[in-house]
């Protein structure tokens, strides 16, 4: 039997191959020593041959790069597998494994902490409170996106969060770098949010203006759709200017107004609603095609007109039932026109049954009887209301008089008034002060509106005149204008250094605040300080003004300088050399400011000069220029009286002109009247040029005559008081202008009359006083 042998396979052929072998490093040899800091002997050998062979140099570099990458990987792995708090403790204690890249570990850990903080911070920014029940913080810690200063808030939170970061340079750098990126992101979001809210508010206000114009025209009896539309177009441009809208946005407001008319209709005249909507979309407009003729509003116009027709149909059906309801309601109040009702029921017998007809007539007659009984009570009620109204008018009259006299704060603690039910109650002082301010502002608004409507005032600056009247009122009364404080502090809150540096123009509300500041600063610095809620806000606006007037910066540069000086996140240590320079220059005041020579109380001004100089230095102003500008700015806040400086922002000094006008005296500067007072006070005892005045510590608006050099009070036999109030000074000025001053001084210098009995009898018969022992002495 034959056996089949397996086929023989061809043996594998052998092929030659070659491969380069690294003869310098064995595979089992480590690249570096175990402490990852010292190279191995082999690596040192390769490094020593760097200049002999470029390949050796590349070999050493590749080993170092591989070791660095390995260290970074070790750092990343440690960060991923270790809790944040635990890793912080290990970094602080130095408990880090060998081979870990400490720079990468610390920097990455700082970034990790920043990301955790930002998660909490972002929740708070979006309105969510992250306060836990076991927290020491009470209330909500959520950020107010509508009124809050996101830059300052973020900086405060970041400073608080930085306490958790290990105190290594790399960790702090990673944390700050990451938080700065988050801060810029959040500021951009807040800016977009504010702009969106402003636009929505403006569009809503514009729609209400246009819709209100249409409703007002209908309410006044207008029934011509073209005339109503014309009234809306007349309000068109005014609405656009008031709310700062583009023509396209105002068109959108007009379309929304038309839709409101279509949805609500015009009760009592359904057809007019349809015609008015058609007129708004299809009627002619001056210099522009019909609103519904544009591609944007063609479909909207069609749907809105369809909605108006649908609404009109529903209103018409309801109107058919209205008369029946009106008759029934009129009968319930006794005001039914029975003749008209009977005529209607005879012509429309299907609406009321006979029983319903008789019931409505009886109801009307019963209501008439009840109404007669109520009339007596109504008359009594009207009388009580008249008494209550007279009481309110009396209160308003009192507040008006106090406001004009500048005594609003001195009104009684409690004021009794009569209520509409005949009982009495009391108003508190603060409640009446707020009411007095509101009454005055409403009065000025009505005045401005009436003056604007007069043709002869077409080119008059009515807003400026109104502002001056408001200024006069608040200078005389130490209270706050409700809007001014909001405008100034909102402007300061929005002044972020990064935003101002990146933008071409400042935000509109910041420009509005700056404009108001400049007006108040020019006309009433004291009133300005009253409306700034914080020292930061005062420093910001004063720095801005100084940069504009003394450093000659343009508006945008000045705003950025002020924001950087007051709100920049900066390390105070870096400014210490500049602060020291400011202190050095302050010692040379006479050479810097010639006006400082001879000022006896110059030291009282140093605090303000030093503070403003430091603020300007933080705005990157040269120390010498900063101090020079600060001194000039502070000097303008004072009035020089014979070498003794008085703060001009004192309310009573600023209100001097208003008080002079209130008592109908000729205009005269405060310092001129004071110098005249000192001239007469000196008499023949003192040199008038050595006298000055200073505020008394026992009250605002009271001054004492002093020696300008020593600052001590000084007596006089002139008859004038060594202490005087604003009222005393006004009386003195009145006597001067009326020519009675010499007679008054003579009267003041006259000795007091004798109260002896014999002199009282002599004066009763018209004789002069005598000494009782005068005759005996003569004998």
Quick take:
The protein is built from 31 helices and seven strands. By secondary structure, the protein is mainly α.
> What's the β-strand tally?
7
Distance between the termini: 197 Å
Assembly type of the chains comes to single chain
Give a short account of the largest sheet: 3 strands, antiparallel
General shape: flat
Mean pLDDT: 78
As residue ranges, the low-confidence spans are: 20-37, 773-779
DSSP helix fraction: 55-70%
Integer-rounded radius of gyration: 43 Å
Tally the helices. 31
Explained architecture:
With 779 residues, this protein is mainly α. Among the domains are: 27-81; 92-131 and 140-216, no CATH class; 217-381; 656-739, no CATH class; 745-779, no CATH class. The protein is built from 31 helices and seven strands. The protein has a three-stranded antiparallel beta sheet with strand order 5-6-7. A hairpin with a 6-residue loop joins β5 (691-695) and β6 (702-707). The longest helix has 52 residues, at 354-405. The N and C termini lie far apart (197 Å).
Features:
single chain; 779 residues; mainly alpha; 3-stranded antiparallel β-sheet; two-stranded antiparallel sheet; 31 helices; 63% helix; flat
List the helices and strands and how they pair.
Layout: H1 41-48, H2 54-81, H3 84-93, H4 102-125, H5 150-161, H6 169-219, H7 225-242, H8 247-264, H9 270-282, H10 295-333, H11 338-347, H12 354-405, E1 414-418, E2 424-428, H13 429-453, H14 462-476, H15 482-493, H16 497-502, H17 508-523, H18 525-530, H19 535-549, H20 555-567, H21 576-586, H22 589-592, H23 603-618, H24 623-635, E3 638-641, E4 644-647, H25 651-654, H26 656-662, H27 670-682, E5 691-695, E6 702-707, E7 723-725, H28 726-738, H29 741-749, H30 757-764, H31 774-778
Antiparallel strand pairs: 1-2, 3-4, 5-6, 6-7
Helix pairs in contact: 1-2, 2-4, 3-4, 4-5, 4-6, 5-6, 6-7, 6-8, 7-8, 7-9, 8-9, 8-10, 9-10, 10-12, 12-13, 13-14, 15-17, 19-20, 20-23, 21-23, 21-24, 23-24
